[in-house]
Amino acid sequence: MMKAAVLFQVRDIRIVDLDIPKISENDVLIKVRAAGICNTDLVRAMKIGAHKMPIVLGHEISGEVVEVGDAVTNISTGDRVAVNPLIPCMKCEYCYSGLYNLCDNYSFLGSRENGGFAEYIRVPATNVIKLENIEYESMALIEPCVCALHAIKRGEIGIGSTIAIFGVGTIGLFALQWAKYIGSSKVFVIDIYDEKLKIAEKLGADVCINASDVDPVKEILQLTQKGVDSAIESAGTIETIINCIKVVRKGGTVSLMGIPYSSSTLLDWKIYDKILRGELTLKGSWMYDISPFSNEWKVAANAIINSIIKTRPLITHYFKLDLLSEVLNKMFTKQLEPYIKVIIQP
User: At what angle do helices 269-277 and 238-247 cross, to 10 degrees?
Assistant: First the structure.
């Protein structure tokens, strides 16, 4: 038996005893060492529920392999691994094209099947990446780091480009680091918490703007005269989506990564007019590329291992598994603010 935090319904998470998962010949069993709380975990637990319930949430996962299936040859017991939670169907037209993040019938650990807020998790062997010389907490953050890398690529960020990042939580701070590493000439970061902006400044942000103090759109337009080349939305609010459109120059690109969980997304005609007359490009950014030709997981893992991308400054809290319900409630009611990445250690 194992301990697991099970979401039975919205705002009903209980620590229960479950059978340790049985693995098939192509699976591995992982003893979970660290699992990050993503905003999607928070929203599912406290607001909208999961795709199916009861379920164990948690998709930012690392741990130690304790059992391998009979057909697994590339992973051994004792290996330290990070977990890719996306399980494509491998049968739809998008999977045949290598666009696994666009799979029509994908599964996903922590939302469509049991995830990492437990002592053990069953994972297909193809979904683990073996890593050495990296701590478990950093390994658990590879997943949001990869999401940020994908958004940077979708936003066409390049050498000498100017970029505005709205929302500097975990993914926003990773996007900042990727932008600087790639060679952006100036990165503006916008948030409402000075504590987060201070971390962004230490990680290389050129201009930090607290949207509670000043109008970030006016500030950026004044400093750039024409607007930025690209904007990344990682806060998941209607206001920040619109502000991204407002701050990009003509011909600029907006990469949409945050999920607003709101139906109030209608655009004012002036915003639509800017998209139209300014020939803006709006791109969605969904998960990451794990095709053999462009595996962003390997890129992100190598960047973290070689300290190109830093994870430690992003981790603000650690908790044991039995406190998960209390922690999620404090996060939802803003009693834990300001936090960036909260790590659960089963």
Answer: 40
